[in-house]
Design brief:
Mean pLDDT: 90
Shape: globular
Low-confidence stretches: 151-173, 387-393
Largest sheet: 7 strands, mixed
Strand order of the largest sheet: 2-8-7-6-5-3-4
CATH class of the largest domain: Alpha Beta
Number of domains: 2
Number of helices: 13
Distance between the termini: 42 Å
Length: 393
């Protein structure tokens, strides 16, 4: 059973009898600019090379990522989307304690539960009245409390200096503590400033808790990334996705930047050939395409302004977002979801996010034509839903 996610146009197509290509998908937050012509050209160029296995180490891509971020390529591991790396981290570290804000991406907990039978999860609950923002000092206190309440401390001397079965040099230090931060957070779109993330990372280092910062949507605010600080913190891990910003989710490409003492164990337990050759070539080309990035920034900025004005005009409650999606709160959201779905318009229900209820939905920022359609349909639904009308009055 797969965890609930957006972007499943295939099931909707089958159930609605609408061609998948005609589904308008606001449930997956993908750059509306679409696949760049440079990536399309690169894919065509290497079609005939599909008779060969892909490079299992993704060496060329890692080298280019190292140059792009000015970091050591040896600290980079590429994956079949960053989600593969979330599960790999859980499989290698086998955390006994997990801290994460709520609501956030559900696969953090799911990955850890599949790898650790004695997992105990501690939630840092985000508050609607704070726009679901993370307060760094509170998160640090929660992290400290998680560790102090653990009976078997990470400094367990019985296991000190023992190595993992792969002989990779990963020291097992007793209980493993793990915390996740999604920045910008999914599904709220709220961004934690770089200095605040680094403050949390420094605290994690002091208490020996691995901090995974998932920057899947940071390309929309690249100056807030902490990817260059991994080398200075043995407990900091940063994950990145290339599928959202570069509009290539069908190719599945992501990467992680890890402390060097972890990379041996991670590579040792990673399945081979998970990153196909076309994904590797497309990612290399994407890094070289500065004009695409600039056009994307301009488009997203323009369409976010358009959507926010539309939400305000219709009286729809939304939360300010630094990503390419919005969390909305609408009375009768279940009816909104079903009504739109019957018309071939998909949005993301958010009731399965811990801390949210059935009144929340998430919508992506898309093209002007699609955004106009969404706003028009939401307005029509609002005018015909008594509960929603009463709320607006």
């Amino acid at each position: 059973m797969q965890a609930g996610h957006g972007g499943n146009i295939y099931t909707a197509s089958e159930e609605l009898g609408i061609a998948a290509q005609k589904i308008i998908d606001f449930s997956a937050s993908i750059n509306p600019l679409g696949v760049s012509k440079e990536i399309r050209s690169e894919i065509k160029k290497y079609i005939n090379s599909l008779i060969h296995y892909p490079d299992p180490e993704a060496a060329e891509l890692r080298e280019r990522l190292g140059e792009y971020h000015r970091i050591d390529p040896e600290s980079i591991i590429c994956g079949n989307g960053s989600t593969e790396l979330i599960y790999l981290i859980a499989r290698v570290l086998k955390p006994e304690r997990l801290l994460m804000p709520q609501p956030t991406f559900s696969d953090y907990e799911r990955a850890c539960r599949t790898s650790s039978y004695e997992l105990r999860v501690m939630s840092y609950e985000l508050r609607k009245e704070d726009n679901f923002d993370i307060r760094p000092d509170e998160f640090i206190s929660a992290m400290t409390e998680m560790i102090q309440s653990t009976e078997h401390r990470a400094q367990n001397t019985d296991k000190k200096n023992s190595k993992d079965s792969l002989g990779s040099g990963l020291w097992t230090l007793g209980s493993v503590f793990l915390a996740f931060l999604c920045n910008p957070n999914n599904p709220t779109g709220r961004l934690l400033a770089k200095d605040d993330v680094l403050k949390i990372a420094e605290a994690a280092k002091k208490v020996k808790c691995y901090l995974v910062v998932d920057e899947a949507f940071i390309d929309f605010s690249p100056e807030e990334s902490v990817i260059r600080y991994v080398k200075d913190n043995p407990y900091l891990i940063v994950l990145r996705s290339m599928t959202k910003f570069y509009a290539i989710p069908g190719l599945r490409i992501g990467y992680g930047v890890f402390p060097l003492h972890l990379t041996g164990a991670l590579r040792g337990m990673k399945e081979p050939w998970t990153v196909n050759m076309l994904a590797q070539k497309a990612a290399v080309m994407a890094l070289e395409d500065a004009s695409y990035r600039e056009a994307s920034f301009a488009l997203i900025k323009r369409e976010k302004k358009f959507l926010e004005e539309g939400f305000k005009k219709s009286g729809i409650e939304f939360f300010p977002s630094e990503a390419n999606f919005y969390l909305l709160r609408i009375d009768g959201a279940e009816n909104v979801y079903e009504t739109l779905r019957k018309k071939g318009i998909l949005i993301r229900k958010c009731a399965n996010f811990y801390g949210l209820d059935s009144s929340y939905i998430r919508v992506a920022v898309k093209s002007r034509k699609a955004n106009k359609l969404l706003l028009r349909e939401l307005s029509l639904i609002a005018d015909n839903v008594p509960a929603y009308q009463a709320e607006r009055r």
